[in-house]
Task: structure prediction
Amino acid sequence: MPELSPKDIVREDIRPLVRRGAQLVDVLPRDEYDRVHLAGAVSIPLSMISRSTAERLKWDRPVIVYSRDCLCDVSARAAWRLASLGFTQVFRYAAGKADWLANGLPVEGAEARIAGAGDLADLDVPTCGPSERVEQIRERVHKDGWNSCVVVNEKLVVLGLLRANDLDHADPHWTAEEAMERDPQTYRLNAPLNEVVEYLRNRRNIDSVLVTTSDGKLFGLLKREDLDKS
Result:
């Protein structure tokens, strides 16, 4: 019987498949696994994959392998190695640990609880659509005690940012799209806090940054004042 080709799997499909019995395997060196790994994953480094080590896995259940990121070929090689050993349901999470961490999903290991940008971000930041008028946005935002508004589409992907200066000084009849900052600085959820602090230290005219997922979807707003308190 010819070996079956490994299939790609995306982040959103991993946890449902694991809940149905799939086995999650970290194929990076053991020291990387010990630092941080996807919650529930077992460690079988690529260099250790053989028929005897594969016996740790159940042959009749799906296996999902991952490594660092989409540029790392370790997961691809591991997936094909498992397929050649006879596993018939092999999946490769090509985006890997970097993607998982960037989206704030559950992890384990010695560095699992190191705080990142997502831990301090305010999740209640106001949002608006690109076609809304500045005067309407300003009234609503100020009423809620904010001085900025994130411009998003229907999927919550960040299109831009209206800061205090934009809201207070732009033509009130302009749309959000006309008045917004089109490329605001964003950080992933696992971004080190000292990296954000350094960015803001060098830009005294900016008091906040956006925290987004790797898909560009809004997670929250991280304010300078919250970093100063941490």
Notes: The domain at 7-112 is CATH 3.40.250.10 (Oxidized Rhodanese; domain 1). The longest helix spans residues 74-85. The two ends are 59 Å apart (CA to CA). The CA atoms of residues 18 and 24 lie 7 Å apart.
